[in-house]
Structure formats: C-alpha cells, structure tokens
Amino acid sequence: MGKRSFAIIGSGALGGLYGAMLARAGFDVHFLFHSDAEHVRQNGLQIDSKNGDFHLDSVNVYDDPEAMPACDVTILALKTTNNHLLRDLLPGPTGTGGTVLVLQNGLNVEVETAAIVGPGRVLGGCCFLCSNKVGKGHIRHLDYGRIVFGRYTPIDAPPPGIDAYTQSLADELQSAGIDAQPTPDLWQARWRKLMWNIPFNGLSVVLDASTKQLIEDEHACHLATDLMQEVANASEATGRPQPDDAIEKTIDHTRHMVPYDSSMRLDYLSGRPMEIEAILGNPIRMAAGAGLKLPKVEMLYHQLHYLQSKKNSDTPQ
Amino acid sequence: MGKRSFAIIGSGALGGLYGAMLARAGFDVHFLFHSDAEHVRQNGLQIDSKNGDFHLDSVNVYDDPEAMPACDVTILALKTTNNHLLRDLLPGPTGTGGTVLVLQNGLNVEVETAAIVGPGRVLGGCCFLCSNKVGKGHIRHLDYGRIVFGRYTPIDAPPPGIDAYTQSLADELQSAGIDAQPTPDLWQARWRKLMWNIPFNGLSVVLDASTKQLIEDEHACHLATDLMQEVANASEATGRPQPDDAIEKTIDHTRHMVPYDSSMRLDYLSGRPMEIEAILGNPIRMAAGAGLKLPKVEMLYHQLHYLQSKKNSDTPQ
What we know:
2 copies of one chain form a homodimer. Chain A is built from 13 helices and 10 strands. Chain A is of the alpha/beta class and 317 residues long. In chain A, strands 1, 2, 3, 4, 5, 6, 7, 8, 9 and 10 form a 10-stranded mixed sheet that branches. In chain A, helix 7 (186-206) packs across helix 11 (263-269) and helix 12 runs antiparallel to helix 13 (295-314). The longest helix of chain A is centred in the middle third of the chain and has 21 residues, at 186-206. Chain A is globular, with a radius of gyration of 19 Å. The model of chain A has no long low-confidence stretch (mean pLDDT 96). Chains A, B: Catalyzes the NADPH-dependent reduction of ketopantoate into pantoic acid.
C-alpha cells in the first residue's frame, strides 16, 4: 500500500500547518483554499514553526471542492461556524470511500460530517495547538501541536477503542512529524478538552481578559473552577467520568502556560463569529439529554450570544 | 409633639433630595456633607426635579458627624461600600433615642447599623428613584421617588407588620411630598427589589449594556429571567415567597422603562466601588443559610469582583 492521500478542508492556521507537514513528508496533499488560493498557487506556503521553518514551493491548490480528487483522508479544519457549507465541501474530496478526520473545536461536532459521509467514515480529534495565520499563505506555529483523535461513535455506544485503521493513521501522521495520539474514547477526550475551553474561551471574551489575568485573579479562578466542575459533571453524566485530579491539573497547567489569547477571544476581537454552539451549546444539550443542568455554562452561553449579537450589530456588514 | 428632626448621612443624589424635600416642608434637617460642605454652606442646595425645581438658601451643613445634634430620625443614604465608616458617623446624630432609616441598596444592609445603635431603633427602606448629583450641591431628580420601608427584624422572625411609629413616619414623609409607603415586611420588599437589581445592575456591568439593550436581546433577557428566578427562589427559601407573576411583571415593567443606567454601572464607569456585597454577596449568603445555592447569581458575583479588581488595578490611586 502506498502512502495515503490527504485533502485539507480549511487551510488556515491549523489545517495549513498539518497539511504542509504532511506534504513536506512526501504525502499527496490537496488543499482547499478560500481567499488565499491564487497567492499560494504562485508563492507556495510558508511555515514559521518553533520546530523549524520551512517553505513548500509547489502546493496542490483548489478553490473549488468539486475539482478535488477523492482522497483517502480528508482533514476537516474549518471553523464549526461554517459547517453549513459541508454539504458542498465534503463530497468531492471524500469520494465514496475516504475517511474524514474532524479537527474542529467543541463537542459532537462530527455529527454534521457523519450525516453527509456516513458515521463509519468519521474520526474526530482535539488539537492542542498554538498557531496563527499571519498573512496570505503564511502560518506561524508558536507552541504545542498534539492531536488526540479517535473513532466517532454515538455518545450512548461503548468507547470503540483503537482499531487498526486508527492506529495506522496515527503512525502515518507521526511519520510526518505530527504528534498524533490515538485515543480509545473520543468523547472522553473532547469533554476533557472542554474543561479548559469552556471556562477560558468563554470568560476571556465576557471579561475581556487574557488567560493569565483570569488565572491570577481569585474570583475569576474560582469561577473557572466552578465551570470546570460543571463540565466534569456533564462528562460523567454522559458516561465519561474524568479523573479526580482533572480540575487541579487543568488549573495548574493553565498557571504555567505562556500568556495566550483563546481562539474565541481572537475570533471575537477580529469580528469573526465565535464557536458558541460547538463549544458551549452542544455540551449544554448533551448534558440536558442526560438530565443534567449546567447553570454557569448556560449563563456563559447566553452572555456570549449577547456579545456576539451586539458585535454583529456594531460591525458594518 | 412637634415635627420630628432629621439627620441626613450621605447627602448625595438620594439623601440630598429627600433631605431637601423635608427641609422645604419645614422640618428641622441636618445634613452631613463630605466634599460639598463648604459649597452648600455658602450657596445652598439646588434641586432640579420633574416635580418642580427648588432651591434651599439656608442649609444646616456639617462636615463632622460628632458636631451634629441628636435627631429623631437619621436617614442613612451612604453607599454600603462606606459602611465601615458607620461607627464614626452614627453616634452623633442618632444620640441615645433616635431611629435610623437605612435607605441603602441590597439585602440585610441594616445589620451593621443595628449592631451600632441596637436593632430596635432600625428601619430599612427600598428606594425606587432616578436621581443624579450633577454638580456641587446640585441634584437632578429624573423620575420615580417611592420609598418602601419598614421595621428591620431578623430574617427568622415573623414579619413585624406596620407599627404606629412606622405609620407616623410614613405620614410625616408624605407630608413633605415624599412617596413613602410603609410595608409590613421589609425582607419581602428587599428581595422583591433585588429581583430587578441583581440581573440588571450585574449584567449591565458585565455585558457593558444599558437596561434597554439587555431587555431587547433574546439571550440577555433569558438570562435576566433565570437570575430573577434564582432570586425569587432564595426569597421563598428564606420564608418570603414572591407572587407568581413577579418575574413577568418585572420584565414587563423593565421593557417600558425609560433608558436607564443602573447605579452599579454608573459606579463602575466612574471608577467608584460597586455595591457587590450588599446587592449580590448578602443574598447569596442568606440563601446559603437556608440551604439554597444560586449558581448564576454567584457567577455574576465573581464576574463583578473580577471587573472591580481589574478596574482598581487599572486606575491610578
């Protein structure tokens, strides 16, 4: 078997970086670009990375998803706020047999992809990555980079474990220098990441604060801990109990992070839509399905929606 | 019996207005001023009111509370954030027999006064008043003006009803044109007012919004309703059930209010300390004493404290 082929849907700070690493390693990679297509076709892709800078001179660039060849693996790295576009974007690159690796923020974000390509063809992953797009075809990878990924299954199904396909995909990604870790239980991993994402994405926008400001303030840190506890309770209520020390570890880890602006705050400050439904709405609804209310997460959800509406009405269209 | 004498502690937008109305009606009124003392001594007090403007030429002005005569009634109209000063402020004007009418925001704010003058000498009231201090010795009364007041008793005591003293004080205040309504149950009245104050004071600061912006947004209005429900639950848990239509009436009333900046937002924007403990902290603690958690009110409490600390650290001292 030859090397797998990859399609990258959403070639920004995340998809662009991982796609470029795969192409550098000799994989056949096809990138869907939006506004940067012509620039990248002419100038290639520039990656500035803490692991070493590199440039791809020749990139398979598409601006039409239907023109893309059917690939073995489609990496979906679009913001979830664009998921209404998936019916147009996925059929070309996924063809009739390829899988989709959903590298989107939030919970149950694979459900829309699964509805289009079929649930057996979907994997999902959480990325722990600090990376920004700093210009056309120019990505700056600042820190981290791990992907924790696994098979997507319904929440009420038992954890699927790591099958041979998932392991071989992990091996291939690792061969390209990507820190890809297969997980036997994607839901557990997604809930675990939300224990950070919900408090720190949400509060950083509502309180106009950096992660450092939040963690160093007694009241904000107390509140972040309360929110984490609600997320841990929801995870447990949906059959995925988190380790006892998960909150303590998350707080401790955050204390030692480099000063960092959450993706939601960056989106908000730039006037882009925030991923409120994926990161907060879906967890609230999954918990409600298990009979659990998350009052503080709900409050954050409504506060973020208020701020989003106000921002939309303040910003000239 | 002659007309009662009054002391006004905190002669700002609220104390200054009511004190001036009493003085205009011929009561013997003694005003404690802070920075405006000399100005008012020389120029008197100017009231611009929707009920008619008036000027007091000669005002009994004090800047030293110990120099004040013992009065029949001391109206306490200081912000609760200054309650650490009460041990110095109250003994002079209250003497050995006078009562104190505590016209401060929040819940259980009478407790500090009661500790100083004794519980049997304390009444409390909720003010429904739109009034601003617009300059030295210059107050603008924009709208409303009602005081709902009654005897202060411990929360676990039965409602005290309206005794002869309370009724006679109401009559005197009314004779000065003040819309003073005696209530048989101060706790009920204070909880009822908090159903507005907690959501609209708190959210207006955290979301940087006017009352109108909050009530007109689907998500903010939903959240305000959730917060009101928590306050109503706390009121009931402490033995003061609110009427079934209280939330609906409060929302409806707010929809028809003139655009209005809450006192907490005005404090925040001007760099003054917010009354977080009186308006949110005390209700949270009273509910906890009755075995009830108020998760969303708690969240607002922590958010406000974060913003207050940040403001303090941003503002040169």
